[in-house]
Amino acid sequence: MQAVFHAHGVTKVYDMGEVQVHALRGVDIELFAGEMMVLLGPSGSGKSTLLNILGGLDRASGGHVFYRDFDLTTASDSQLTQYRRLHVGFVFQFYNLIPSLTALENVAAVTEIARDPMKPEEALDLVGLADRRHHFPSQLSGGQQQRVAIARAIAKRPTVLLCDEPTGALDSETGVLVLEAIDRVNRELGSATAVITHNADIAGMADRVVHMSNGNISHIDHNQKRKQPRELHW
Amino acid sequence: MTLSALNRKLFRDLWAVRGQVIAIALVLAGGIATYVMAASTLRAMRDTQTRMYREFRFPDLFASLKRAPLSLASRVRQLPGIIEVETRTAAPANISLAGFSQPVSGLIIGLPASGPILNLLHLHAGRLPDPNADHEAIVSDGFAQAHKLNPGFRLDVTIEGRRQTLTVVGIVSTPEFTYQIAPGSLVPDFTTYCILWMNAKPLQASFRMTGAFNQIAATVSPGFPFENLFAPLDSLLRPYGGLGAHARKEQVSHRFLTEEFKQLEMMATLFPAMFLSVAAFLLNVVVGRLMTTQRSQIATLKAFGYTTSAIAWHFLKFTLLIVAIGAVIGIAGGFQMGSGMARLYKDVYRFPYLEYGLDWRVTLFAFAISALAAMTGALFAVLKASAESPAVAMQPANPGHYRRAWLEFPGLSQPSRMILRNILRRPVKCSLSLAGIALSTAILVLGGFWIDAVDFMVFAQLRRAQTEDLAVTFFGPVSSRALYSLRSIPGVTLAEPSRTVSARIRFEHRSFRTGLQGLEPSATLRRLLDDRLQPFEVPSQGLLLTGHLATMLGAKPGDLITVELLEGSRAIRTLPLTATVNEYIGISAYMRRDALNRFLRESDVTTSANLRVDPNRLDSVYSRLRCIPAIAGIAVRSQALQSFYKTLAAQMLTFAFFNTILAGTIAVGVVYNTVRIALSERSRELASLRVLGYTRGEVAYILLGELALVVFSALPLGLWLGRQFSAYFASTAQTELFRIPVVVAPGTYAFSALVILLSTLLSAFIVGRQVNHLDLVEVLKARE
């Protein structure tokens, strides 16, 4: 399988004046096309830092991160913007929808600047929100808002889909609906998907589960069979 | 002393939003400074006026006449209500100074042997004339200063053709001549107009007034209705050529001062009100935003047991600290500007003294009104936030409610849609920002308007209406044959006669005393202008009035006006008002000179002449004119123009400079705060878009596009509003002395718009840099 990302010896040090915080201490990792990876670990383990570096939001202090042949660690700011614009889909814990745009327009905000996107309607259909297209975020429930965020992330047909605690702000029933949407996108579009969670139960839906602690990968589990989100409980 | 935790938080909060704090404090300071400047100058001038009127025994009643025996004074003294009476002789004089070729005219006043009892003099240097000296004089301080004269200097003074040399022994000032304006001039010109005093006896001898007087002044017992004195006084003086008695309010210096006070009063109210309302609005927005970002902190504090009022007070202290910063800058700046302004005033109004100081009442009031304005602005936001229950406040805020904008059209990009919806979501806040920017644009237009208006007045009056090079006034009516001798002077290319007589113009129950001028029908040097500034011929019949006089009298063309001549025949006649004349300076009535002469039952006489002179022969013309005994005064138009500009230019440029800075402060304050708050409210949204792959430029477009839309909508509104303000100011400044035309030059509009655009660019630049530093990771982590 072709690696979408390969990262070697990635370190990240936050200089907080008198103290230095080592968020990542030399991480090596790969993410393959079409793969579903779950990053699991307690808060402060470095999983969000890693995701932010993979997503081009933050730069590594040391080591190298390649998206295919493109070295993210040496890329300029505008190169990183282009990279995010064309290749990466993001889903956040607090949805981060634009409150002044309807569901459909939130998706259109991304398709308007992407290369070869799907239609915004199509993306909303994929997450089961065809009938909520013209609702504003304030008129949607948390789960619905998160699914709009997923539609927005996948409408550009991203190579990678990065989800940071996508169910963190949701109850378990709604969380399952959101995970189903992510699962479906991963299977149907083949986007390499990384999901951050501190909820071990979610790990069942992944091909690979990366356990992180203290800025390092402690171990990696391979699931023989991915569970359906419906089968997950927490 | 240690600060409580809450107070420490206060200072840190202030520091965190220091950019906005400075912007608001500066707008507040602008309002306070204009108030302190205008109010303290006004107070200083009023106090000085009251004090000097008392100290220098400024009279309540004044009258001029042709010539009356000194014995008449005792009959005036017997009128009820009169306390003191002083008679004197005053004569127009032509003055020559060594080394100054231009004609200088003056008024020379006789000093009673026992010294004046009214209109006392303040001696700045030297001494009063020796009671037995015939050739000693004292001069007004403005003239002395303009020519750097010291006691000991000699002047050649010509009274009715008799020339004598006087030695200046002292330099004085007096409330009677705080405003020293030559008759027919626009503004004081200290180089060409002078007030002199000499002993009465030699003056009366040279003016052929021995044993007589031609001016009388009186004080009236406090509370006595002195209007009741006009009729008896006039009937006493009429046989002696009385020109009608008048009270202080018609005394020239007093009138100009009163007008100046009115302008200052307006400056002390209207401008600060504008600044303070903008500051109140800004504080409302900033404190409102602070309350939103600190919602959960407030809830936490309440959960710990802080009372609602303690929290409300905490945030009000935040507001008061900003007020304090603004007040200190404003009071200090206002005091500085005020003392500069007082100096400018002292150059124009020759007060014997002017004690300018910072009045504690002004300071206190400045602080109180700005605190009040700020509190009004902040109170609502504070009360709303501090009253929220802690449980509710600790929940994350829901996404804002939006709806489609009616302005949207298909094909609009999502960022453009965001701009429109954001504007329409908060129409009130957005309109207030718009109003603030429009207001500062309007203030700029207003600042430029003064200069445009003065330019236009000068153009209309001195380039279209009065195009003569020189105007000579005779001591009294002379045969118009005198014109021949004027025309024969080498260098004089044109001489046109005019006849002026004092008259009372009456319509219904309203009346006004002014000069009635008789003009030649085909005059080219002194022309009457219509509303479009086109000259028109004086009709052979009827009367013409300055538009403002017609309005004051309530008369319109076709009405029959009663004209009572106060000189010569003293005839009373009813004449039809044939047209009104467009004039910005002074108030006059006009008719054909031949008709006026018939009215006066006189032959072909004239009292003044307008001359056109070859500019290369001006000096020789001056010296020839000085030798003509019948000439009482010579006015030089270019000199009038120069002195007008010199006096006003310094004042207006200073005003325009401060005005631009103040308006720019408002513009930057409003624009910067608007866009800074938009950034803080929407940083999460903008960071999300950056994460989704929007470039910095695209994100800045959303933020600054909204601003641009507001600024571009505000600009035309502001320019229009500026014209309305100008029209309003012009209408309030409409006086008998001058009317200000509502003229705003295109350059003024352009300059105003440019200042606003530059202020916007400056604010956009500062905030744009902050967009570049949006922390994508942090913003996404934190929940709103």
Which SSEs are present, and which pair or pack?
The complex is a heterodimer of chains A (234) and B (784).
Chain A: E1 3-16, E2 19-32, E3 36-40, H1 47-54, E4 62-67, E5 70-71, H2 77-87, E6 88-91, H3 103-111, H4 120-126, H5 142-154, E7 160-164, H6 172-189, E8 192-197, E9 208-213, E10 216-222
Parallel strand pairs in A: 3-8, 3-9, 6-7, 7-8
Antiparallel strand pairs in A: 1-2, 1-4, 4-5, 9-10
Chain B: H1 5-16, H2 18-55, E1 61-69, H3 72-77, E2 82-88, E3 90-97, E4 100-111, E5 122-126, E6 136-140, H4 141-146, E7 154-159, E8 162-173, E9 193-199, H5 200-206, E10 212-220, H6 227-237, E11 245-247, H7 252-293, H8 295-303, H9 308-348, H10 360-386, H11 390-394, H12 414-425, H13 427-465, E12 470-479, H14 482-487, E13 492-507, E14 510-519, E15 528-529, E16 535-536, E17 543-546, H15 547-553, E18 560-565, E19 572-581, E20 588-592, H16 593-599, E21 605-613, H17 618-626, E22 631-636, H18 637-691, H19 696-732, H20 746-772, H21 776-781
Parallel strand pairs in B: 4-9, 6-8, 14-20, 17-19
Antiparallel strand pairs in B: 1-10, 1-11, 2-10, 3-4, 3-7, 5-8, 6-9, 7-8, 12-21, 12-22, 13-14, 13-18, 13-21, 15-16, 17-20, 18-19
Helix pairs in contact in B: 1-9, 2-7, 2-9, 2-10, 2-18, 7-8, 7-10, 7-13, 7-18, 9-10, 12-19, 13-18, 13-19, 13-20, 18-19, 18-20, 19-20
Describe the protein in words.
The complex is a heterodimer of chains A (234) and B (784). Chain A is an alpha/beta fold and 234 residues long. In chain A, 28% of the residues lie in helices and 29% in strands. Chain A contains 6 helices and 10 strands; from the N terminus they run E-E-E-H-E-E-H-E-H-H-H-E-H-E-E-E. In chain A, the strands form 2 sheets. In chain A, strands 6-7-8-3-9-10 form a 6-stranded mixed β-sheet, with helices on both faces. In chain A, strand 1 and strand 2 (19-32) form a beta hairpin. The longest helix of chain A is centred in the C-terminal third of the chain and has 18 residues, at 172-189. The model of chain A has no long low-confidence stretch (mean pLDDT 90). Chain B is of the alpha+beta class. Chain B folds into 4 domains: 1-55 and 253-382, no CATH class; 90-208, no CATH class; 413-467 and 638-784, no CATH class; 492-613, no CATH class. Chain B has 21 helices and 22 strands. In chain B, the strands form 4 sheets. Chain B has a 6-stranded mixed beta barrel. In chain B, a hairpin with a 2-residue loop joins strand 7 and strand 8 (162-173). In chain B, helix 2 (18-55) runs antiparallel to helix 18 and helix 18 (637-691) runs antiparallel to helix 19. The model of chain B has no long low-confidence stretch (mean pLDDT 87). Chain A binds chain B through residues 48, 52, 55, 57-58, 78, 81-82, 84-86, 88, 90, 92, 94, 96-101, 105-106, 108-110, 112-114, 136-138, 145, 152, 164, and chain B through 396, 398-403, 413-415, 417-418, 421-422, 425, 684-685, 688-696, 698, 776-777, 780-781, 783-784.
